[in-house]
């Protein structure tokens, strides 16, 4: 989906917004103490979804795009922001960090107050400074790299950092009785930060790292990395890689070298559909992974709603946290009574419940009703409590534990 932007250019608007920044922040203090204030502008709030619609990551991002659209639908059905429908624009970030920088220029020339995205952490590192320095709040439901912590006062994320996930993986591997491990990781900003935390958590859990192999995403032959791991003879192997790159390595590790698939562990970004990249889907049988998401019943209900938007969806990774990113940002704008990015950012901690003593609410409609009655709110989303810390990261999340079956499908372990 792509809605044509309005004719008003954002750069001119941003110059005026910068001059009014102090006034906007003063209004935010009042807003946060009273549960909301009259909007300082008669313009509607504009949210841009900055996610890949083309390139290697496009198929994996479909559930995120559907999640943003569902959130926008829920916001507008409840009365919108400032009593007006939110304007939503879906901007193709592309799947490449270099071309994403050019795509970000389109966002800067739009009316966006809030950007939902990016998909990958490496792309966030490339474009978040540009987006946030222009006064736009950026909220991601899928960026997990610890390297992004504190990158900007206007950058937030509802996805947990890989520091939290690596601790979960280490506990799982150790709990399964393994004492040695090999790691294959993606050599980019996301993978490097994840690998560092993973090694630290393995050591803390008493696991010895026998092999630690990186790969570059432009490579097509990973036999050297896989053979090095196999030669080290670890009890378990952990992949810190995007699914789009991992099928060939699983094929070589399990299919060619005969490594037990039940001793393989995926990161949340490795979890995915391997129908087109693994010759025998039984090579995945028993592989385990964690991924942030709603509890089982909530997730099932959410997925049913997503399928009404996009019936072709088969996976739902990071969709719920992206939905939450959209809702919490819109609520912050409502509380701030402003489309100014700094004012919205200032309201995010209280709306998320990390400051203040707001009333807990779990839907946009319920939260808006509390605000309209003069109260303050603490939004708990699909993925549980969303409390931004001083670096705008979430400190905890609900993780789902997945395991693959012999047919290549994966399901939550009850």
From TrEMBL:
Residues covered by the Leucine-binding protein domain: 45-355
The organism of origin for this protein: Agromyces rhizosphaerae
Protein name: Branched-chain amino acid ABC transporter substrate-binding protein
Family per similarity comment: Belongs to the leucine-binding protein family.
Signal peptide, first to last residue: 1-31
InterPro entries cross-referenced by the UniProt entry: BCAA_transport, Leu-bd, Peripla_BP_I
Lineage: superkingdom: Bacteria
One of the Pfam families matching this protein, by short name: Peripla_BP_6
SUPFAM superfamilies noted in UniProt: Periplasmic binding protein-like I (SSF53822)
Keywords: Signal
Record carries keyword Kinase: no
